[in-house]
Amino acid sequence: MNYRFIRGLSQLLGRRTVIETDAAVDPSLARETVFEACRGMALSPAERKETLQKVAKELSISVKELEKALWADLEENQIVKSFVSLSPAELLKQYNISLTQTLLFRAVDLDIWIKGDFQKILWKILRSGLMYSLEDTDEERGKIEREINREKEEKKGDVKENFEELKAVHLHLDGPASLFRISERYGNSFAKIFPALLKSKGWRLKAGILHKGYQGKRILNFTLDDSEKFFKITSEAAVYPETLSPELQIKEEKEKYEARVEIGKEAGKEARIEEIDAEEATYDSTLEQMFGSLSLGSWKIKREPTILKAGKYAFVPDFSLQRDGMRVYLEIVGFWTPEYIENKIKKLKQVKEPVILLIDRKLKCSEKDFPSQEVIFFDKKIPANEVMQILRKYEEKKLSEDRSRLEKLEFPISGELVNLEKMAADKGVLPDALKEVVADRLAKAGELEEIEELGKLGESERTGEFEKARELEELRESGKAEEFGKVEDLEKYQNYVLLENYLIHRQLLERIDQDLERPGAGETYADAVKVFEGFGLDRSLYYPVLEQLGYKVIWAGLSEENAKVKKAKKV
């Protein structure tokens, strides 16, 4: 019998078991009370019986319950309250995972090759505080292409080729201490990454395992990939064949390892599988936590591992800053080794996306090292104002680009209330850019209205007015609208008023005005609010609508009930 194997399974099953002590009173209290009552040992059955009866009465339990409670906390007397069952195949799968994790506790470094969605793996690595390098691998890409060709031959049909899904990368993991000496202090982090790796596709790993023997320390290579059958066992899968015992099967699989492990000694260290999505976000440093808590106006701070292309390598910034379709990345460069900084500079020179760098002044580098990036040097505290200044540059650039694009677009308007913020989000532009273009078209619509009015006058004594009146007909006949835009669209704008982030139809404003003028309907600001709510207006429109309709609010304190609404002029 393989005792190590049995001991490993026992450890795993024990974690799924809830064991309780079945006793009427606390066993330690029962023993203490009994031994105090008999003052040592009972010298006869009669004395024992008398002592038990006395203690049972004192503890308000029966003699039988007392005798049961005396040793109920011993392991052989405890009972199993509940057990989360699993199939034999799933148990063996958990055993193999724990076996591998126990081995990784002794790893000094780790190399992972993976294709497809590796975002969660990167997220785990970033949280662990490990140092890493990441690059595309031609070797993996060749394997993927061969796999695609094999699938095509097997399925005799088209197989969808998605570069993003099939993209292969090589991750090398270690820690700062590894730069100076061989260290297995990062093995715990390596082991925690392994369950997340199992959820990926097309992976393989190689770990350097520190082996301590009579001949001293040696580094042994441990390799594994997703083709290993014992990691693909599911709860529905069949158990190992009866012709081959589980012990022999495990032994054969273990012979594939290039390093030996003793699971019994490390059973307490085995990591449990944890759901990545359920973990709370953690920060690698105080500076990152400080930046993550900042408020940058309309910009949202996201801490997620976005992969940016940096030549044949990849760069993963600390944060992404997002607003209205814009995305700017930010990297905090604290104290690291010269080699780390040099590698960072090489990568950043090849990144095309906008990246803001926050660099500790203690580091021996300058803005000249980062010619294509926005650089901010800091001492201890994050300079939020300087970050906002750079973000405003991107806002202005985006505003100009969006405005130029919107001026060439047709976006017909309809309805009584047009939400420009929603329209901007649908078109992927800044709300301010859309508002500027809409305001410009409203102005042109006003000019067009003047031309139409002049056209109704017929011949005018003033030649200039006569020429203006003819301009409308020329626009209609030519079908061009370089100056005023399409006449038909501009005529629709004549019916709207721009207030805050909304276009409001004049007919809606008239109906609101009529309701406000009804006796008792709009005497106070609170009354006006009820009218606005009836028309479904956003709260940001209350004051602008009142001003547009010629009302003013006279406040007498902070209460809306006491604020009077009066019409200042007739519109």
Automatic annotation (TrEMBL):
InterPro entries: Bax1. This is DUF790 family protein. It comes from Methanosarcina barkeri str. Wiesmoor. Residues 134-169 form a coiled coil. Keywords: Coiled coil. The lineage of its organism: Archaea, Methanobacteriati, Methanobacteriota, Stenosarchaea group, Methanomicrobia. It holds the Pfam family DUF790.
